[in-house]
Amino acid sequence: MAGFLDRAREQVQQGLNQGKQKLDEVQAQRAGNDLLKQLGAAYYAERRGSGTPDATQQALSALEAHIATHGDGFLRA
């Protein structure tokens, strides 16, 4: 009986780890999408004259840092 419980515990732990990994991926994708949206808004504001090049550069730098950490998979979704 103990062997069965050990295998069941391993399967549950593996399922939890996979779920956490998927959650982390989804959160990183959402964060990337938000950063991309912020970059677009900063660029649009700059082109309209109500934004600054510094704001656009900051948004771009934040997006590039996110891509360096999490990859650019969210750009394809």
Structural notes for this entry:
- With 77 residues, the chain is mainly α.
- 84% of the residues lie in helices and 0% in strands.
- The protein has 2 helices and no strands.
- It has helices spanning 2-48, 53-70.
- Helix 1 runs antiparallel to helix 2 (53-70).
- The protein is rod-shaped, with a radius of gyration of 20 Å.
- It starts with a helix and ends in a 7-residue tail after the last helix.
- The model has no long low-confidence stretch (mean pLDDT 94).
Short description:
The protein has 77 residues and is mostly helical. It has helices at residues 2-48, 53-70.
Defining traits:
77 residues, mainly alpha, 2 helices, 0% strand
